[in-house]
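Q: Two folds, back to back.
A: First:
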Amino acid sequence: MNMTFAVIKTGGKQYKVAANDVIKIEKLEAEAGDIVTFDQVLMVGDTIGAPLVEGALVAAELVETKKQKTVIIFKKRRRHNSRRRNGHRQLLTTVRITEILTGGAKPTIKAAAKAEKTEAVTEKAPAKKAETKAAAPKTEAAAEAPAKKPATKKAAAAKEDTAAEKPAKKAPAKKADKADKE
């Protein structure tokens, strides 16, 4: 049975969730793409638990785990020249609610397995193509580099100076050229 909403308890907080909701909760020990189940269901639709609903389960797919924005803690004691500034970034897990189950039903894992397969294929295939394409131009450029000749006399002179390991002379600055003209 697919209910309209449920109230779950996780991380010391209560969340009202429905299918396909994306919520941020306290950090969970799982990886992206894993199926997470919440068995502390306080309410499903019109059924209120005492304290939990028997046989109810909420399944969710873990999307990502990352840090929250910085929360600044600033404490000040008046007329004592006493101030303390501190910051904190809480780890949050983003989950997508896949289904709300009652009557002891098990979550369907097919949706998560399909998502993992598609992610793995899309990540691996472009990486291999990029490596082969990137390696080929480098070898061609290295082979063509010695065959090219310098286009100008200055470039040829600079190339000879570097070949003889002599320090290159700098051209006068443009500002000095303008001053000479005036």
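A: Second:
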Amino acid sequence: MNSEIDIVQSSLILKSKKYLSKCKKKGIEIATSPFCDLTTWINSIGYQKLLLISENKLLSKNYIRYFFSELINVGRFKYSYNIYSNSLFKKKKINIIYSYSWKENFKKNIFYDNYFKVNSQDDNFFFILISIDGYLPKKLKNCLIINRTKIFFNPIIFLSHLTKKIFCKNFFHKFNSTNIFNEFVQNIFFKEISQNKGNILIPYESRPHQNALVSAAKKKNKKNNIICYLHNMPWPFQLDMIYKGIRIDKLLVCSNLQKQVFINNYFWPKKILKTIPSLRFDQLKKRKKTIFLPFDLTEDDQKLLDGFKTLISKISFDIKKYEISIHPLKKLSEKHINFKNELLMIIKNSKSNFKTKTDDPIIFSHPGGTATECLQVCNTVYHITSDKLHAFSKRIWKSIKILKIEKNVYKYVSRNTKFLILDKKKSIKNII
């Protein structure tokens, strides 16, 4: 018999496919519109739309809130870019990596890419980077860095974009902060990148701006070879990766299991997918005695905290020796810090009479790739979530044993499953 999670997720996949198909028939660019970006891991207009699709509703308070946020943010961001010395227009064939950068990626005027393990010292590569922390080195080569700065609402910027979009078909799919950024990225590509044939490499998560760059690259030169790389571990419900017909030549995934999940559940054509060992990871970290918080806390905090209390009362954890891990991009988030403090208080007041204690990891809410990483190195993980879109489905993940301990509390067990293939010798240079 199918579990409730299986039914909810299977139904939502079909509903989402139907919704995207209707949007496409209306002429909406479903790969780049935030209203079609059906993520489960971040609170956004796409996540709120997904909830409406799931519940067969048209509107909700949160949907309206994020809808207006997309509009207001048109006037709250300023975009710029720096291009450094390069020989792009002298090369007959180019390799371009579209990725992200942080200050820590730069050492001695060289950019080091975490995903493909190459650097800007190699003249065979040119990098288009989105600076996450705003850092722009003074001296560099073979790089173009995009800087997205949040500002106080500027009515001039807002009205400037509005006048350009006011008569556009599917107006709200065009006039939003996500699409304005998409177009900025595309304009950079058209202006600054050579017309010569090249390999376009993207650490891919089907983000709208990534799909916008893919579209621009194919328009610039239809012979451009688009190689997207799903760099992270598989996560439970990968609906944000549903196939949208984007013109990708190859999507590299890091396990045969991931490949089959995409073919069987998210409608990816088999010919596009290719399995390779991970380019990003040389090895997986030990994950014992760790509590993981999600990137975005989209669920009811109290339900998560109650689930935690239930879990540690039923399973013997060496809980006072556990560390709490906050996502690197959320280290300064007040909400995450407060949630961590709530957990520390529960741990402080907890009592255990068990003699034998486990040190298996505990994950809250949307587990991302941390869940499969934990399963590959630890075999067992405990998961606390009230959202059925965040849990593993038995129908999709047949190699995972899923046990419901209590309401909103799960135990996953998977032995000898390769969610990600490791090979230290693998290089992107061997693929392109």
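Q: And?
A: The chain has three domains: 4-76+151-275, 78-145, 290-413.
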